[in-house]
Amino acid sequence: MNNIMIGRFVPGSSWVHRLDPRTKMIVTFVFIFVMLFASSWGTYALSAVFVVLAIRLTQQPFKLYWDGLKPIFWLILFTVVLQLFLTPGTPVVLHVGPLQVTWPGILNAIYVMIRFTLIILMSTIMTLSTPPTSIANALESLLAPLNKIHVPVAELALMLSIALRFVPLLMDETQKIMNAQKSRGMSFSTGGPIKRARAIVPLLIPLFVGALQRALDLANAMEIRGFKDAASRTKYRILLYGRQDVVAFIGTLIFVLIFIGIKISGV
Amino acid sequence: MAITFEQVNFSYGAGTTLANPILHDINITIADHQVTAIIGQTGSGKSTLIQHLNGLLKPTTGQVIVDDLIVTNTTKEKQLTKLRAKVGMVFQFPENQLFANTVLEDVMYGPLNFGYKTDEAKQSAQSALKMVNVAENLWQKSPFELSGGQMRRVAMAGALASNPDIVVMDEPAAGLDPKGQAELLALVSNLKEAGKLVVFISHQMDHVVSVADQVIVMQDGHVAAQGTPADVFNRDIDWFKSVNLDLPRAGQFAEQLRANGVSLSRRPLTLAELATMINEEYEHE
Q: Which residue range or ranges hold the ABC transporter domain (chain B) (predicted)?
């Protein structure tokens, strides 16, 4: 349970850590958007260089990112297999029953794998270097214009940050209840699927009871401190773009321009 | 049924970049039919230590020997289930583990998992509920209708129902009222009398001296001291400050007496002992 890297924040003081969370969010978004147009070795190579550079700037070991990819391995594999067998075209390389593997299929599969990996790595860079509350703040700030059309952005951001705050608590709680029930002989790894599914009940019920209790406690605590609505709140951390954010944007812009260049020249 | 730790080290996430060492070279023996208290400030590794007693955590290196079962880093889950049948584990705030429709069913959960037949499980659940003083009219109620104190006792019955030889409790007195605390100490004594090995974590030194035969002091993942309460609590006052622990009330009182020029031959554990010592040592003055 402790080795899930997706969305985990690793404290640090690297160049990337110190960037404004909005910058990281925009850069990540731009990168993912641009990746949708990658279609050749040149564009993928460039994107990989960009990601590797960004990883270096977080000053975290590559192994950490590698661990982060592991849980998504099966998803990637599934997509790769789909691409491999379901891309039409010539020449056909291999026949497997009614299915066939084509050369474009193989290329597509490799491209999809790289694309997936790079996108996940890029998002990992953002979540790994940004505390969840900062991500919620950044989202609130970036979506602020929607306030004009009466979207309750502040409330949504608050809900998001509370939800994020609850994730580690619930993980902890799950571990505790699991330990308690394991001590009473619970086993997830024996019996048929129905027996295994039933084994989860003694875990889920206490977890839900606890989560509801926590939510009530939090609601009470907020009300006691006079919470009415999120809109008029002031911020403890005020987001400010700095010089390094400009550098990050310029870097990203250069990346996008070269990308377009490669794309047009068709390498 | 004694418990032995041999050169046990433990790290969370061992072998990864985020490895976090918690326990360092633990060598302890916990004698059978005795009550052992584990004390130490928050974060000293007490809870991590006791999770090794029923294989919830396995030592990163070294071994834990419980009776004839040896737990090392490579012990299989199936072996651990055998171990867990012997060890009743009561966690901090155990009331959070309740889930069943009725109190009785919840307490039967453990015995059923450990292979008891339904009527056997029912019988041992009933005797466990009696042992912790849960009134019979509550047995068919939902555990969520009970008061906090009652829930705590039902959860304890849940750990005791499979009739374990070893009972481990992590801060069982936390959040109980004085009456509940007294009942808990009585339960610990009863368990000892029934021939069980009891290990408990406590922050209340008066509880420790009133029921424990042996004390283990943890600090920063090391065993800082081990011995009888009389030995451990007779240590130098500066040592207690260094491990961030308090003395029992009687010991504190004796320290204040000493600061005012009334010294006793050794530090008393209980108030009764304190009174006796003052009477005997200052009888003729």
A: 3-245
Kindly indicate the confidence band of residue A27, based on its pLDDT and cuts at 50, 70 and 90. Answer: very high
Q: What's the Cα-to-Cα distance from B129 to each of B95, B103, B107, B133, B139, rounded to whole Å?
A: 14, 9, 8, 6, 8
* Claim to verify: residue A83 and residue A204 sit in the same structural domain: no
The answer to the question of residue A178 being in a domain is: yes
Same domain (yes/no): A197, A176:
yes
pLDDT at A1 over 50: no
For B37-83, the pLDDT digits (tens) are 999 999 899 999 999 999 999 999 999 999 889 999 999 888 898 89
Quote the domain boundaries for residue A179. Answer: 153-230
This model of the complex carries an ipTM of 0.88
From B65's Cα to the closest Cα of chain A, the distance in A is 17
Q: Give the pLDDT of residue A38.
A: 87
**Residue A139 forms part of a structural domain:** no
Note the residue count of chain B: 285
A5 and A127 inside one domain? yes
Q: pLDDT, tens digit, for every residue of B212-239?
A: 999 999 999 999 999 999 999 999 999 9
A174 and A49 co-located in one domain: no
Mutating which of A184, A198, A203, A204 best tests the B interface, going by the most B Cβ atoms within 10 A?
A184
* Confidence check: pLDDT of A232 > 70: no
Per the CB < 8 A criterion, the answer to whether B124 and B162 are in contact is: yes
Instruction: Test B110 with A184 for CB contact under 8 angstroms.
Output: yes
The residue type of B207 is H
**Is A179 inside any structural domain?**
yes
Report which of B175, B181, B150, B164 is spatially closest to residue B114, judged by C-alpha positions: B164
Burial of B108 (0-12, 13-18, 19+ CB in 10 A): buried
Q: Are residues A22 and A120 in the same domain?
A: yes
Residue B285 among the catalytic residues: no
Domain ranges for chain B, please list them.
247-285
